[in-house]
Known about the structure:
The structure holds three protein chains of three kinds. Chain A is an all-alpha fold. Helices cover 80% and strands 0% of the residues of chain A. In chain A, helix 1 packs across helix 6, helix 6 (94-122) crosses helix 7 and helix 7 packs parallel to helix 10 (197-221). The mean pLDDT of chain A is 91. Chain C has six helices and nine strands; from the N terminus they run E-E-E-H-E-E-H-H-H-E-H-E-E-E-H. Chain C has a six-stranded mixed beta sheet, sandwiched between helices. In chain C, helix 2 (97-107) crosses helix 3. The A-B interface holds A 148, 151-152, 155-156, 158-161, 165, 168-169, 172-173, 175-176, 179-180, 183, 198-199, 202, 205-206, 209-210, 213, 217, 220-221, 223 and B 64, 112, 116, 119-120, 123, 126-127, 130-132, 136, 139-140, 143-144, 146-148, 150-151, 154-155, 157-159, 161-163.
Amino acid sequence: xxxxxxxxxxxxxxxxxxxxxxxxxxxxxxxxxxxxxxxxxxxxxxxxxxxxxxxxxxxxxxxxxxxxxxxxxxxxxxxxxxxxxxxxxxxxxxxxxxxxxxxxxxxxxxxxxxxxxxxxxxxxxxxxxxxxxxxxxxxxxxxxxxxxxxxxxxxxxxxxxxxxxxxxxxxxxxxxxxxxxxxxxxxxxxxxxxxxxxxxxxxxxxxxxxxxxxxxxxxxxxxx
Amino acid sequence: xxxxxxxxxxxxxxxxxxxxxxxxxxxxxxxxxxxxxxxxxxxxxxxxxxxxxxxxxxxxxxxxxxxxxxxxxxxxxxxxxxxxxxxxxxxxxxxxxxxxxxxxxxxxxxxxxxxxxxxxxxxxxxxxxxxxxxxxxxxxxxxxxxxxxxxxxxxxxxxxxxxxxxxxxxxxxxxxxxxxxxxxxxxxxxxxxxxxxxxxxxxxxxxxxxxxxxxxxxxxxxxxx
Amino acid sequence: xxxxxxxxxxxxxxxxxxxxxxxxxxxxxxxxxxxxxxxxxxxxxxxxxxxxxxxxxxxxxxxxxxxxxxxxxxxxxxxxxxxxxxxxxxxxxxxxxxxxxxxxxxxxxxxxxxxxxxxxxxxxxxxxxxxxxxxxxxxxxxxxxxxxxxxxxxxxxxxxxxxxxxxxxxxxxxxxxxxxxxxxxxxxxxxxxxxxxxxxxxxxxxxxxxxxxxxxxxxxxxxxxxxxxxxxx
Lengths: 224, 225, 233
């Protein structure tokens, strides 16, 4: 079966599984909410400060949430050893990763879209004017988080202390995504918004580089 | 064995020579005085550390390709030695920066990348400690090592292009930035010295890793009896 | 139920080594299994049976040596890969039996996946529970869905790792019948067993492993009984 077809079939499985239980989505949404609220308890920003710090805090919350949300990604496949049956059935192992990272990106973006109105309300930042660009940055950043996170999740699933290990491996790796996404988001939400195309391009390059690395090395991540 | 002893001897002599050059041969820097001399050590160590990480990256690639244990030994060796160098860099940096600029730290591209690099390779070693089976450990840490290394330039450029809002002090200005010729020679000499010393460390650590592996093998065979 | 999609296929292990950190799980194992044979692998725990089966299933890479499938056709569904049944069901608990089978059928290019899934569900007697999540299944039912999954692409080679474990006598009877049918249709079967059971008579050949090496083979004269009961099995 071609890569595209396998990926689509597997993506269907990932989505069906998640939407049946909605465990990942609900816990991720609640987690981001809690983090955002805690942030505003820890620092009480002025209106100007909100604009400057808000987006950074949002991205931080997304990163923390993602490092938790991505743990079950490959852990689930250890139940009943379904990873083995997938490896047996699928012609190109990259399809397994592709399906999972697309699903993870979708879940993250969905969560972020649901969180945006609350974020705008808590931090008093109008998001509507630049919404389309904001969504673009959210998408590209979340894609980067997913690609790296899915790969690293395959690694941490095979080690001890995997719950603590994944954030530890993932968060330093995602520094570029955090820095660029936060900075670009801040400029988008300023009183005089600026679209930093260089930043958006950088995020796309990050995504491409890690996607390529995953394509080259993915099958080794699944080896037994 | 004899070669290792010679290497150790030579490395030690060179370090002494390098220190001498840094303290007595190099002229005093105009604005910062004696303290600036730590720069020779700091920058040279940083350079040698980066090269150690590069060797680690190559060893990781080779292991994934060939699956020979020696590449795994080389990988962990260079990661540890590189980490030691990076730790030294992160400590000597602030030691210099505080008296010179009045600040312990700044989030400029180079320092931040170094810090993230440090975190990544600590994670690399941590990952290794959490996987029991040798072949799994070698493969998974090699793969993580590869991902970590390709991330480094991305970290560097992301900070450089998006985090230099306030004019940051040029911490440890670039080696070629208008250095006095004697200073330049002392600098490059120390770079050479640190590379030889790091090579010595790598050799010793590699031998240790090989021994560790052999002992582990014997132990497992004995247990199986 | 199975009628292998294309040519009868055998297995050839050539000097297979599998090492885990210095310990040999398998040591220079060379075996030739002819198409259509029903081979039983016997041996104590840790003798290498599971490892050999997982290598045959291509889930585990051997440290050295070569594995080939003489007679395999690459146009077969699932790339001519063997069907594999192990201790775990290898299906998704959160999906229904039907959804699981359709998934694996589609991934392996089985023509008319929904129809094929339905056919197998009927064969293994799970048709009535096809829309229930696998999570709700009993041990016997789980074994059946695992077998259905392994057979979905009509493999020419079937690998079973201790198939009778945890089954009640009824389950074991059903399993023996199923295996017998599968074998009659020309499929090559390799299964590991712990000792004599209702299943062992199906074997056309038995091989004993110990500490990763082949120590006895009915092909070279040992008796089936001695292989299965050697050293207290």
